[in-house]
Amino acid sequence: MTAQVTRKQMRTVFAETVIESLATDPRVVMLTADISSWFFWEVKKDFPDRVHNFGIREQAMIDIAGGFALAGQRPVVHTYAPFLVERPFEQIKIGLGHQDVGAVLVSVGASYDDPSWGRTHQAPGDVALLDTLPGWTVHVPGHEDEVAPLLSKAIAGDNRVYVRLSERANSEAVPVSEKFTVLRRGKAGVVLAVGPVLDQVLAATATADVTVLYASTIRPFDHAGLREAVAAAAPNVVLVEPYLRGTSAFEVTEALGDVPHRLRSFGTWRDREARVYGTPEEHDRLFGVDAESLADSIARFVG
């Protein structure tokens, strides 16, 4: 009998990567707002001036991260997505963006990974909100093995980076790249899967004659990769993202501005509020991003 391998959660890999960076890079400072602070209790004994828990004072945490960046440090900032991006958005805009300093923001919870907490812990609009600000790189890993390489590179840099972790993951990792990875080739259209929705997309398109692209980095958007894929297939583009539906639709339009094409976007609703809380899988079905719903929608769209 083959022994079952226990997989780590993305959040665990994130903590291990930051702890290693604290030991090897004196610029790194770790800022938490209670969430996941327990990962860093031991390493704080070694670096008491570089590991900080601000409790539920997220606005102050972002402004202080900006201060660390102005002083030449590399702040890594972490909490649930709505408390990291939405609640302190003005501080992100001014304290980081307007001052043109860098930080690595690492969220957890994503759109509805932990729905039992209700709407307060959901942020399907986080990437769309950051799209209103210039200069952000956005990583959406779909597997725990994709987290460390993406995060290590982000920490080693000096720009503004958002790493969107998920409690759920695809069954297999894809080698990380800033370009879209071609997983299948077909003629009826192109399906772009972002991060942890890849398994649903692969299952939904198992018998479809479509090209499947995968992205663990969605900003900057790989315009050239999409153009190349569309040039070899029918100009039918399906965008499946694990957050607000149509978030990257404007990027598709930019990429294919001179190419007649059709676009269908999938993700969480943007025209009405979900007022029920079940399991993440039930939310997938509610928003139409489960494999069965996607298979039907994609077949009708490209067919």
TrEMBL record:
<dbReference type="InterPro" id="IPR009014">
    <property type="entry name" value="Transketo_C/PFOR_II"/>
</dbReference>
<dbReference type="Pfam" id="PF02779">
    <property type="entry name" value="Transket_pyr"/>
</dbReference>
<feature type="domain" description="Transketolase-like pyrimidine-binding">
    <location>
        <begin position="8"/>
        <end position="173"/>
    </location>
</feature>
<protein>
    <submittedName>
        <fullName>Transketolase</fullName>
    </submittedName>
</protein>
<dbReference type="GO" id="GO:0000287">
    <property type="term" value="F:magnesium ion binding"/>
</dbReference>
<dbReference type="InterPro" id="IPR051157">
    <property type="entry name" value="PDH/Transketolase"/>
</dbReference>
<dbReference type="InterPro" id="IPR029061">
    <property type="entry name" value="THDP-binding"/>
</dbReference>
<dbReference type="InterPro" id="IPR005475">
    <property type="entry name" value="Transketolase-like_Pyr-bd"/>
</dbReference>
